[in-house]
Amino acid sequence: MRAYTPKDNVQAKSYYTDRFWVAPQVAKSQVSDDAVFTADLAAIKAKFDVLDAYVQVEQMVVVINAADNYAVLELLKNECEYTQLSEMSAIDWLATEGKFEIFYQMLSMTKRKRVRIKCKIDENEAIQSVEKLFRSADWSEREMYDMFGVVVNNHPFMKRILMPDDWEGFPLRKTYPLQGDEFAAWYEVDKIFGKEAREIIGPENRDPARIDRYDTQRFSRLGHEVPFGTDISQGEPDTPLVYQEQEGVFMVEKFDAEKSVVISDRQR
Amino acid sequence: MAQHQVNYLKDGGLPVALTTIDKVVNWGRSNSIWALTYGLACCGIEMMASGASRYDFDRFGTIFRASPRQAELMVVAGTLTKKHAEFIRRLYDQMTEPKWVISMGSCANTGGMFNTYATVQGVDRVIPVDLYLPGCAPRPETLQYAVMMLQQKIRKEPASRSQKPKRLM
Fold first, then answer.
1. Residue B13 within any structural domain of the chain
2. A252, B23: Cβ pair inside 8 Å?
């Protein structure tokens, strides 16, 4: 258990950090404990360098060199019966290691086992596409490029998939601010009206909870509506909610409950 | 030859009604607000419910159209992403004058809970908005009330050909 640290001043700071906090790790076990994984790992080790291998949550994790990714997946698909690539993407470790981690999540329906292949690449390094082996990698690799900026070689259609084509920056990198950088903040204004419209439209309001009681340009009080821009620091008049103008509407009759007929006899 | 006695001076006797052009035109406009289907997210479900039989928008003359050329009201129902912003502006420009915009729900009003890089923080950054509906999502009654408020707004405006320019740009 961690030692207690006083948290009185937590609210004053934007976030709370504990210098001695260690992220909990899922327990690892030996590959040799599982006969199926042992055979699979031996098949990989026979041809390729394996940097690390362990079992975590009943899944074997194999760390390989990035250059071998296509050949290893081909081996797993053709000889080890891992016929599905259920998921693949990247993890941003640029801050701590200066590298991206690429992972491929493989599934064997016959063995009922999952294997995760991991490899690491530098920031400006490209990785080989596995789209020829698994069609599911097509969009996953495009998303990986879109979100992390990891370039994939030999991909048939290397293009952004979620963000607009003219977007700058890669949003899932840890260095990308959640509320967007300068480019993202003005994207729609620049694109539709041009950069000269920035002054007219103004910056984004990133505090949607902000309410100014006396601002009648951006807010109104229900039941106390006033014309746009009126000064209400001296109080505002009551304007009761009405569904129709008091004097009536041209060619539209108000519903009068007195004149209406209620049909009680359904057989009439 | 009318067999019955007609008193032309009593109400409904003469087939003539005296009024102004403004009132006639605004009567037509306010009772035939054709809306562009613009469901972007979950508010679109409430908008569809407003159009369906229980809440029945047709009795207001509000009929959803799939083409901006036939629509004069745009109900922006849902989250507007930055990628989609240029398309909403293009569709707004394609609508014929006079045209109105209802911003439905928190996301369309201010970006709502999506305080992120990919969401437009209020559709009024892109198109001029006439009415803002609070809620997440607003109930169909809220949208109905908004349409009735819009009818009141239309009736107040002069029906002349040149519309007052809206505030954005």
1. no
2. no
Write the CB contacts of A217 (distance below 8 Å, at least 6 apart in sequence): A228, A229
**Measuring CA to CA, which residue among A213, A219, A217 is closest to residue A234?**
A213
Nearest chain A residue (CA) to B90: A192
Low-confidence ranges of chain A (pLDDT < 70): 9-17, 208
Tokens of A226: 């006033």
Instruction: Measure in Å the smallest separation between the Cα of B119 and chain A Cα atoms.
Output: 9
Residue B163 has pLDDT above 70, yes or no: no
Tell me if B87 sits within 8 A of B127, measured CB to CB.
no
> In this predicted model, what pLDDT tens digit does every residue of A155-205 receive, in sequence order?
999 999 999 999 999 999 999 998 889 999 999 999 999 999 999 888 998
Multiple choice CATH, A28-153, 3.40.1280.10, 3.90.550.10, 3.30.460.80, 3.40.190.10: 3.30.460.80
- For residues A250 and B19, the answer to whether their CB atoms sit within 8 Å is yes
Q: Is the pLDDT of residue B161 over 80?
A: no
B27, B125, B152 ranked by CB distance to A250: nearest: B27
Chain B: residue whose CA lies nearest to A220: B132
Least Cα distance to A190 among B114, B82, B94 occurs for B82
Q: Do B115 and A197 touch (CB under 8 A)?
A: no
Q: Which domain holds residue B40?
A: 21-135
Tell me the C-alpha distance between A141 and A121, whole Å.
15
Three-class DSSP category at A193 = coil
Q: Is the pLDDT of residue B167 over 80?
A: no
Tell me how far CA of residue A247 lies from CA of A64, A260, B12, B93, in angstroms.
Answer: 80, 21, 20, 35
* Residues of B with Cβ-Cβ distance to A184 under 8 angstroms: 82, 117-118
pTM: 0.81
Asked if the Cβ–Cβ distance from B27 to A245 is below 8 Å, we say: no
> Is B128:B168 a contact under the CB 8 Å cutoff?
yes
CATH number for the domain spanning B72: value is 3.40.50.12280
Structural domains counted in chain B: 1
- Residues whose CB is less than 8 angstroms from the CB of residue B132 and which lie 6 or more positions away in sequence, other chains included: B102, B103, B109
